[in-house]
Design a protein that fits this description.
There is one protein chain. By secondary structure, this protein is mainly α. The protein contains six helices and no strands. α3 (about 40-50) packs antiparallel against α4, α4 packs antiparallel against α5 and α5 packs antiparallel against α6. The two termini are about 20 Å apart.
Length: about 100
């Protein structure tokens, strides 16, 4: 994934801590401050967006992180697309999960 600046690592840890505490809005604010959006930052932003019920935004972030976190993102994308009532894409990711 490459090295992140020290500040970005700190922000990722703080954003993760807020997610773990269920503070999704605060997590988004912290993670938005990350200078270089790594796949990890996108994955965490996707989780925060899901927690807020913003499934379209969450899907965008998970798609950015899918190469690095394929199984976690596939599971999250299936959920997002199901919530968005895009059953074709939900089925696509459900099948992808079965293949992993």
């Amino acid at each position: 994934m490459g090295l992140l600046p020290e500040d970005d690592r700190e922000l990722l840890l703080r954003g993760q801590a807020c997610l773990d505490a269920g503070a999704y809005t605060r997590s988004v604010r912290i993670l938005d401050a990350v200078n270089e959006k790594s796949p990890r930052a996108h994955y965490l932003l996707g989780q925060a967006a899901m927690g807020q019920g913003a499934y379209a935004l969450a899907a965008e972030h998970f798609l950015q992180a899918e190469q690095v976190f394929p199984q976690d993102c596939a599971k999250a994308l299936e959920t997002c697309y199901r919530e968005l009532e895009d059953y074709k894409m939900a089925y696509h990711y459900a099948c992808k999960l079965r293949e992993m």
